[in-house]
Write a structure and sequence with these properties.
InterPro entries: GM2-AP, GM2-AP_sf, ML_dom. One of its GO terms (molecular function) is enzyme activator activity. Keywords: Signal. By secondary structure, this protein is mainly beta. The chain contains 2 helices and 13 strands. The strands form 3 sheets. Strands 1, 3, 5, 6, 9, 11, 12 and 13 form an 8-stranded antiparallel sheet that branches. The chain has a 3-stranded antiparallel sheet with strand order 2-4-10, with no helix packed on it. Strand 7 and strand 8 form a beta hairpin. The radius of gyration is 16 Å and the shape is globular.
Length: 202
């Protein structure tokens, strides 16, 4: 679930670089006016599910702040799952941008923004073909990268990642963002996490 919940959410957004250290599907379409992401700062997170949610993020740390892109990044995380998670896993994202005192929900464009991913397991299979070893540092720490995810506790000690260039579409401007990620299976909510961060591009 550490891979499914965090890596999927962050990688799908391609905004917070914690999951950008490996191969990934091309979710962004190049277009005129696109800009290069230069910094991500002000990162914060919290669980947003109720006490009945079986999957809870216990800790998540991303450093430095701000993160320079391209550059290096150190991530640590811990997730506790009280239930085996199997296909199909659904992830629903709501992405909002601050506009003065208001928060404006962004649409889903080219698989970026407030999108719903109906089959997280298939996305993970595209990122890491079945039958191939999980990438480091997941392999070293026994963190699975394919469904099903067995119940238990998963921990990623502080690990360093190289962050490549990230291209943003023209409509994703500098500013403060917040994201709500809900992972579910068959209509049952499994986990809810809120992320907040700021983007700076050039």
């Amino acid at each position: 679930m550490l891979c499914a919940g965090l890596a999927l959410a962050l990688c799908a957004l391609q905004l917070v670089p914690a999951a950008l250290a490996g191969p990934q599907p091309q979710l962004l379409v190049e277009r005129s006016g696109a800009r290069r992401l230069s910094k991500v700062g002000g990162f914060a997170w919290e669980n947003c599910g109720d006490k009945s949610d079986p999957v809870v993020v216990q800790s998540l740390s991303v450093a430095p702040d701000p993160i320079s892109i391209p550059g290096s990044l150190r991530v640590s995380a811990a997730v506790k799952s009280g239930k085996t998670m199997s296909s199909p896993l659904k992830a629903a994202l709501v992405v909002e941008k601050a506009l003065g005192d208001l928060w404006i929900q962004l649409p889903c464009i080219d698989q970026l923004g407030s999108c719903t991913y109906n089959d997280v397991c298939s996305i993970l299979d595209e990122l890491i073909p079945p039958g191939t070893p999980c990438p480091e540092p997941l392999l070293t720490y026994g963190i699975p990268c394919h469904c099903p995810f067995k119940a238990g506790s998963y921990s990623l000690p502080a690990s360093d990642f190289d962050v490549p260039d990230v291209e943003l579409p023209s409509w994703m401007t500098n500013g403060n963002y917040r994201v709500r990620v809900v992972v579910s299976n068959g209509g049952e909510e499994l986990s809810c996490v809120k992320l907040a961060f700021s983007l700076h591009s050039h």
